[in-house]
Amino acid sequence: MTIEEIFAGETDNLEFKEDIPAKSEKYMKTVVAFANGSGGRIVFGVENDTWNVIGFAKEEVFRKMDAITNAIYDSCDPKIAPSVGIQDVDGKYIIVVDVPSGMQRPYCLKSQGMLDGVYLRVAGTTRKAARYQIQEMILDAGNRSFDQQKVERELSDQEMEQFCDRLYHHAQELCNTDADKASLKKIGKNQLLSYKLVLEENEKYYATNGYQLIDGRLDEYFGASIQCAVFKGTVRNIFITRKEFKGSIDEQIESAYAFVLEHINLGARIDGLARQDIYELPIRTIREIITNAVCHRSYLSPDKIQVALFDDRLEVTSPGMLDHDLTIEKMKTGLSKVRNKAIAEAFAYMNLIEAWGSGIPKMYDEAKAYGLPEPELIDLDSDFRVNLYRRTMEFDQHGVVDPRLVAKVNETNETDATDATNLNKEENAIMSVLKMNPTITQKELNKETGISLGTIKRLLPKLQEKGVLERTGNRRSGKWIVKE
Fold first, then answer.
1. CA–CA separation, 387 vs 394, rounded Å?
2. What are the residue ranges of helices labelled H in 201-282?
3. pTM (predicted TM-score)
């Protein structure tokens, strides 16, 4: 190590010890935590607070190295093999212990056992792992995912067929073109087995956790919902409104998406005699962020996804640690590691996911096209957060947004409008009622069409995306314009 590195102080993956503690457990927890994470380094012979190099005498340094190596070998399970070396810093000897990221996680202290002796690094400190985090590491070590694990629910052919029908109809709703819709094929039992949403044992078929979550059977998944809130200002002091969405996880996505659109600014630009609605944030990115949170969260964690709208940003927090091999920088390049493989397969079929790893790079591109600040990805150790920053929209006296801010967005939307496809039965029903009564409320629309309120909230933004429906005025006194 260089003097500059030492005086930079401790980091998430670097810790200093003045001497070898009499009780090895005091630093062994950190060894275990490094092995359970992305690895790390412990430097002996440097004061923790002042970072002064104390060092060891030449005649004792090898004895201390042996003591550290033996303690790590004897105290950890599975065995951890660190790299232990000596370094001369201005004539003083320090011992540098490099602990690699382990391949046999979870690692624990033998004396405490697997239930109490597993540790992780959190914000530069060593902390005991929660039970669900240990379960995740065990699954990950076997290249398994929680959503592919069997539950004690035997499925009939009729139940599986109805499940496949629902996935098929959702996929059709999100098809971009007629060609996509025509080429979409309905999946069946064999595909569910391939996704591992269903498992076969002794000629019987059983649901997995992923099947249950998509089917809306959430009794055993306490954190499987999305909490949405609008806050006044930029901190979580005063909330304006909040809602929690439960039910099938794909419907949660659509409800949370509709919630955000309902509470962000909606401007417009005038093109000839036509007025085109434009949201202050790229709506595709909003859907992508929420979908990623639902797809990649830990369903073993009791925490819930949080979608929070502040004056300056949209903040989406997803429970669960990042994989120890995955970094923020790697994510920006498009690298993706799927936590819930069965759910991801289903979402890809349902057109909720476009292409693996494309979501983060696309988010940055769309934010740039909108003239927004660069989005922020934050590893909170036990959670992951995405911040999409807002920008004040510039309106004229008629409530029309300055077209200079949305020129690129307008070009994209015009292209999308030309690609608009035939509408499905529910969309046609909504459009027919809106054409007759353009000032109707969503609740009245629900009574008039018989379509659920959640579906209406999901389809209205989708119809606007397709360019066949526009909204003028504000939320209370505005009206809908159906494009012929």
1. 22
2. 209-215, 249-263
3. 0.74
Per the structure block, which two tokens stand in for 384?
Answer: 């992951």
d(CA 458, CA 117): 46
CB atoms within 10 A of CB 126: 18
Residues 21-67 have pLDDT tens digits of 888 888 999 999 999 998 999 999 988 777 788 999 888 999 999 99
CB–CB of 313/289 below 8 Å? no
Omega of the bond prior to 78 within 30 degrees of 0, cis?
yes
Calculate the CA 405 to chain-centre distance.
Answer: 29
- From the list 334, 241, 353, the residue with the least C-alpha distance to 294 is 353
Q: In sequence order, what are the residues at sequence separation of 6 or more whose Cβ sits closer than 8 angstroms to the Cβ of residue 434?
A: 440, 445, 469, 480, 482
At 449, phi and psi to the nearest 5?
A: -100, -20
pLDDT greater than 60 at residue 327: yes
**Residues β-bridged to residue 128:** 119
- Non-local (6+) Cβ contacts of 163 within 8 A are 192, 211, 214, 215
- Tell me the average pLDDT across 168-182: 89
Residue 396 confidence class, pLDDT cut points 50, 70, 90: low
Q: Using CA of residue 422, residue 426, residue 432, residue 434, what is the dihedral sign? A: negative
Instruction: Let me know: does 288 contact 300? Beta carbons within 8 Å.
Output: no
Task: Using the predicted structure, report yes or no on whether residue 95 has a pLDDT greater than 90.
Answer: yes
CA distances to 270, 404, 472 from 398, rounded to whole Å, are: 10, 16, 11
Non-local (6+) Cβ contacts of 449 within 8 A are 426, 429, 430, 433, 456
In angstroms, rounded to a whole number, what is the distance separating the alpha carbons of residues 311 and 232?
Answer: 7
Find out whether 410 and 403 touch, Cβ atoms under 8 Å: yes
What is d(CA 136, CA 299) in angstroms, rounded to the nearest whole number? 10
Whole-number Å distance between alpha carbons of 77 and 93: 30
Please name the helix (run of DSSP H) or strand (run of DSSP E) that holds residue 95, with its range, or none: strand 92-99
Pairing of strands 479-482, 469-472: antiparallel
d(CA 331, CA 351): 21
Q: What DSSP element (H or E) covers 270?
A: strand 266-271
Q: What is the DSSP string of 141-182?
A: HTT--GGGSEEEEE--HHHHHHHHHHHHHHHHHT--SHHHHH
pLDDT score recorded for residue 414: 40
Q: Give start and end residues of each alpha helix (H) in 350-437.
A: 359-369, 407-418, 425-436
Please check the confidence at residue 413 and state whether its pLDDT lies above 60. Answer: no
